[in-house]
Amino acid sequence: MAVDVKYRTSARATGGRDGQSGTTDGTFNVKLTVPKELGGPGGEGVNPEQLFATGYSACFLGAMKFVASQGGPKVPADATVTATVGIGPRSEGGFGLEISLEVALPGVPKAEAEALVAKAHQVCPYSNATRNNIDFKLNVV
User: 13 with 32: CB under 8 angstroms?
Assistant: First the structure.
């Protein structure tokens, strides 16, 4: 499927999961630390799964606002998307991810909220990139 790209960005990592990563334009830089659960020291720093969860939650909220602008219910200012990303060994070898999104749309009737979230899941680029290749759960609270 072709994509009419409107924006590109680049990031560079050094040192792997226990190093540094940042955008090549210098606007974002982060220290990386392997979590204790994966055999690392933990402590200060973030890991790729935290960065992925942060990006996915923000992007999905943006997708909901896009859907709302196309005639869906208004997304309240206090709406939240919590993305939880898990990582672990796969039975086929290597490592895999699982993702769950918990969406809160205060004041929006449950049926309308679920319809909005379902449509957002169809347009969100993170959802499109991960669909049908990882364990995924979507919950409207």
Answer: yes
